[in-house]
Each structure stands twice: as C-alpha cells, then as structure tokens.
C-alpha cells in the first residue's frame, strides 16, 4: 500500500517485538489501550532524565523545558482537534475524568429538577455513571436512545428523545468501544443544539482512527484518553468550546489554578489553568505530544485506507467461521469487532487464544447495557490499530479454530 | 497445543462444563445465595438443603465459562452428603491449589485435582472459586450477592 509501509510502522512499536507464552505477540486489544511507539517512550524518558522540573513555576531551565513541552502539547492537541484556541484544551487523567468534570462542573451549574441528560444505549460505563450521579443529585433524569439489532443508534430515536423536551445535555460515543459502531456525531450535535442542549462527545475510540474536527462537528465538549492514542497512561483531554468551558466552575481547588489567594478570598486563573489544579502528568502529556508528532508524520489517508481494508478483512474472516456470531453490525463501524462462539464462553476463548499469543479482550467491555440489549453476558472483541496486519487476523482465526476443536 | 492449556481444559472439565451435574434446584432447599463475577459477567445461584451440619442436597443454575460451570458442577457432586467441616477442609486445599500456593492433597480433592491447572492462569482463579464462595454464603445464609471483586 503506497505511503504506508506496515513493516516500518511495526518496527516503531517495541512491544510488538516480544513473545508471550513462547509465541509471537499478536496484539488485538488496542481499544483497551494502544501500544506506544519508541518515540513516545523516549520522550517520557527524556523528561525524567533531562527536563525534570515542575511546570509554570520556576525560572530554572529544566522547569522551563518541561513547561514548554507541556504547553507545546496543548497546541498540538488544539491543532489535532481543530480547536479555535489552545485554552480550550484541558489536560486530564483520561476520558473518565474528562466526563466527570463536565458532569460535575457543567452539570451541577446547569441541571435542575426535571431536566434531562440524554445518552445512547452504546455507552461505556464512564459515559453513564457520571451522568447518573449528577442526575440523582440534581433531581434530573437520565434518558436513553436505545440501540437497534445492528448495534446502531437510529437518529430518529435521538430526535424523539429531544422532541420530548427538557434535554439539557446530550452525551454520546463517537465510536463504540464494545461494537465499533460509529455515530454520526455532526448530525447529533446539530440536533442537540437545535433543541437547546449542549453536546458531549466521547471520542476515546475515535481519535486512534481519525482526527476529528471539533468546529466542523459542532460539539460543545469532546473528550479522549491519551493511552488509547499511543500516548502514556494517565493522560487525557477535555476540549470545551470557549464560552461553555469558560462558564464552568473549577473542578478542584489547589495550586496552579489561582490568580491570587488570601484567607478571605481567592480569585481563579484564566483557562486553561483554572481547570488544571495541582501538578499534572507532565511526562505523560509530553509523551502525548510525541505521539501526536508521530501520528502527524504518517500519511493519514493511507493509514485510514489500511485500517478500512483490515477491518473488512477481519470482519469477512470472522464471518467465514461456522458457529461464530458477530455482534455489532452497524454499516458504519471501525476499530472493534465483537463476536461469540456457539461452543465456548468468551472467557474461555480469551484464555485459549492467549496461549497462542493472541491478545483479545473478553467480557462486557464496561458496557453492560450493550450486552443486555443483545441478551448475552459477554463477547470476545478484537480491536485494531494501524500497526496491525492481515497476518494478525490470520493468527486470530487459527486460534479461534483451536478453541472450536477443543470444545467440539 | 500448549501443555498448560491442556492441563487447564482437561476432559473432566470439558465434560462437566458441557453437561453440568446438579444443574437444578433441590426441592425444599433451605439455603441459597447468588454469585457474580463482574469482570466476565458470570453469575450463578446455588441452592442447598442443610440438615444439622451436613449438606444433604445441592444444585446450581447460571451461566459462565467452562471453568466456572465445571467448578460448580464438580463442587455439587463432591459436597452432596458431606459434613461442613469436611467441605471446609476440601475448599481450603482447593483454594490454595488454584492459587498456586499448595500441592494437591489427593485424599481431599479426588476428582477436583483437575483444577490444579488453573494456577497457571491467575486471571481464571475467580472462575474456579465463584461457586465455592457462593455456596459458603448460602450456608451462612446472609442473603448477600457474592461477588468475586
Ligand atoms: C468509549 C470509551 N469511553 C470511555 C472510556 C474510558 O476511558 P479511560 O478508562 O481511559 O478513562 C473508554 C475506555 O475503555 C472507552 O472505550
């Protein structure tokens, strides 16, 4: 494939060069956490070896370098998301914290008794529970646009909930982690806005496969985790449209988020510092910058073509196995493919393929309502990143056949 | 095929998982408990008849992986008609064996020795012990749902 040298790409990821249980590692669990390219690992080490200082605080050189690296990543994320200003980018510990911040800060200031928060039936627990918590506290109601048999969320279902009135916040996954379903984020955000609701897009599973443009999407908030974007764990992003983000009360009080403090009164700093209390994950954020630089060096169109081809190949390969059922068959899907076998429980599949070196995720994928909608306790899930190749899928297939032989 | 794997999925385990014994609730059960493994969605209910200090009948229903189904099946077969103190002695060794902390005591475990292979797969220990924990709760009858977390 022109512009996309898969062997060169794979050699950038040291974790792929290892054996597990005596077999070459086949990593098909990038939706849980993505592998890191060597440049990210080096960037983190570089921080601790040479640029170890706290940010925004001292005049010494290591602190200055750390600050530059940290703030440099903010600009990179701004560019990656197409955001209007760097101050619309808040660093968090991950998607979970980002969503909790919006729920606790924006939700608390804007939700009242009888108001509604609308989510979809596809959501990860981290886009359900924070809303449940704030709704309960504010006397608001959580309503759901359910999924259909393909694991898609028909726009009519979202519209119907909005038309019923009272929805203040619409929170939904751009791409489902359990099924791979891609939701039409732009249409949903427009619908939300036309009904006077703000939109919160959980982009955790979208950003590893595309660069979303938040202005084009028309969303109010967009959140994701660094570790699924080939960056270190413990990093995440909360993008908020300046007006909405600026109106949010602080999440935590502490250092770095103030303008002045006295025992009588504290005044808060401007965005973004107001929402980043305390010493953040400096090395992690700088590592995220290295990941974005790495991604920026890839031919995005060629990468997406490679991923689409691989997704189709995986889907067709899985479907060719008798006794295997795919779960989540929405027309527009990417990244994750869920399935189960008639003969074996997903947990057994996971253990058996692991002994062949194949890393799959099995279970409910932090999306129990999705499992319930399909009437199953769990699935096995293969999830793809651009460093995967057809040979990985062939290894998966061979190991699934081993499971079938064992349980036949 | 990997030898650890063959150790784990022995004939006995496959057989019990495909055709679980005592997969029913005993008539007149006076103790019951429900167990969940939130990690993988396994759940099962154990019901039993406790008379004095012995289990005179026991059964289970639920869904789960081969290891958890086989563990529940072999457990019910084993403990039926047994005194609680003997059951506890078995579980003590069984638990230590699947955790990789003790050798199999053949006299105690009998057929349950096949679960020794679980010790090579730490992520599966909970599958092998869920039914036992659930049974213990049923005996104590404190009404709580057992979870492996
Ligand atoms: C769609 C989606 N939302 C949210 C999360 C939570 O992300 P994190 O655990 O990194 O906070 C995940 C991670 O699995 C996810 O896939």
Write the layout of secondary structure elements.
The complex is a heterodimer of chains A (408) and B (149).
Chain A: H1 6-11, E1 19-20, E2 23-24, E3 26-27, H2 38-49, H3 61-81, E4 89-92, H4 95-110, E5 116-120, H5 129-138, E6 141-145, H6 155-163, E7 167-173, H7 185-194, E8 198-202, H8 214-217, E9 221-225, E10 236-240, H9 242-246, E11 258-261, E12 266-268, H10 282-296, H11 300-319, E13 324-327, E14 336-341, H12 346-354, E15 358-359, E16 361-363, H13 368-374, E17 379-383, H14 390-407
Parallel strand pairs in A: 3-15, 5-6, 5-7, 7-8, 8-9
Antiparallel strand pairs in A: 1-2, 4-10, 9-10, 11-12, 13-14, 14-17, 16-17
Helix pairs in contact in A: 2-10, 3-10, 4-5, 6-7, 11-14, 12-14
Chain B: H1 3-8, H2 11-18, E1 31-37, E2 42-51, E3 54-63, H3 66-79, H4 84-98, H5 106-109, H6 125-140, E4 145-147
Parallel strand pairs in B: 1-4
Antiparallel strand pairs in B: 1-2, 2-3
The complex binds pyridoxal-5'-phosphate (PLP).
Q: List ligands, each type once.
A: pyridoxal-5'-phosphate
The total count of helices of chain B amounts to: 6
Count of helix runs of chain A: 14
**What coarse outline of chain B follows from CA principal-axis ratios?**
globular
Please report the distance between the alpha carbons of the first and last residues of chain A: 39 Å
Give the assembly state of these chains.
heterodimer
CATH architectural type of chain B: Alpha-Beta Complex
CATH superfamily of the largest domain in chain A: Type I PLP-dependent aspartate aminotransferase-like (Major domain)
Q: How much β-strand is present in the residues of chain A?
A: 15-25%
Helix content of chain A: 25-40%
What structural class do the secondary elements of chain B suggest?
A: alpha+beta
Low-confidence spans of chain B: none
**Alpha-beta content class of chain A:** alpha/beta
Q: How would a textbook summarize the main sheet of chain A?
A: 7 strands, mixed
Into how many domains do the coordinates of chain A divide? 2
Q: Whole-number radius of gyration of chain A?
A: 22 Å
| CATH domain fold name of chain B | Sufe protein. Chain: A
CATH class of the largest domain in chain A: Alpha Beta
Q: Which spans of chain A of ≥5 residues are poorly predicted at pLDDT below 50?
A: none
Largest sheet of chain B: 4 strands, mixed
